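Subject: sequence -> structure tokens, single chain

Hey, anyone have a minute? Need the predicted structure for the following. Not urgent.
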Amino acid sequence: MKFNTIIIGGGLAGLTAGLALLKAGQKVALVSDGQSALHFASDSFDLLGYDAQGQAVTNPLEAIAGLDATHPYSKVADVAGTAAQAQQLLAEAGVKTTGEAKANHYRLTPIGVVKPTWLTVDDFVTLDKPDTTPWKKVVVANIIGYLDFPTKFIVAGLRKLGVEVALKGFTTPELTEARKSPSEMRATNISHVLTDPAVIADVARQLSEISAGFDAVLLPAVISMKDDANAKLLKQQVKTPLYYVATLPPSIPGVRTQTLLRNRFIAQGGIFLTGDQATGGKIEGDTLKSITTAKLTDAELEADNFVLATGSFMAHGLMANYEKVYEPIMDLDVDYTGAHKDWSEYGVFNAQPYMQFGVATDAQLHVKKGGKVIKNCYAAGAILSGNNRVKMADGAGVDMLTALQAVKNILKK
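Reply:
Had a minute. Here:
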């Protein structure tokens, strides 16, 4: 089977590249082994939240211009233009967001602190400044028995901002039934319950009653896993202004984002090989000719170009033993430093060196093997070296912008 481009990895970077290539008229296949890091994502997309010194970034575009040359953004030719393209791509797939690349706003996290971010899904809590809110009195409303929404932290965080906060619980017969099994009180299961219009109407009635006299009601984001229709419906029926707050994983807005992007990829003619895993590649000279997968044992997938978007350690895009860090599909060159003892630092909150490990690439995002550039294979997203996604809050931006840059490099050829 021959394609213009094959993408390895079905997360944010892989789907971004796939959609952009389809838009350019290419025949594209994407190999995905299942869940991606989007299932752990918040309601926001970070471009650059903190600089290398750990200081909050106000203007990401200005701060990106001052980053070290090893950062993946250094390989993106037009950061501002590519960021705008990324936001447009999300909107075309049905992921509606607010925000801009030249000015971070702030999101409310599940543990009650505010963090700078680039884009936030519509109807979620956003703040223009880290120390002020648009409300004086709010209700934090939670489903009785739902434990992945740490309300005490959220209430404490809001009170530090000078907001008067009331914490109230609610339920419905359907949610009470789900509560009989602790495993059913997860965001994904609750989301299925909250697809019935009658249940939504019952929740809306209760929220309107408990939030009367308040400026806003804040609700855990456990509704609308396939699209935002039910979330919009609930918001319309509640008399008090309603806003959603991200929960601990699994992430409903993250699952929704992946679902919307995947559905658009398929609708645009992309071949989505889900539940499969790339197992190797045939490299001849400086060219990757084909890849093999775990399920297509009798066939090789051939393409003119390839995009490696398999993620970092959590997604098994990178692996390690006591001797080395390696890329498991083609044993590509990896940027990492020192011996095993140097890969981590004592203290869970310290910056960890291994977070910056990744595959080695040239200025055009071509991967390398044995020091030789593979001219038709590009890397994008978390598998790239040179940044700490946790400490710098730049993960979604690196995923989308490097994926779009890889696409531009492919289309230039």
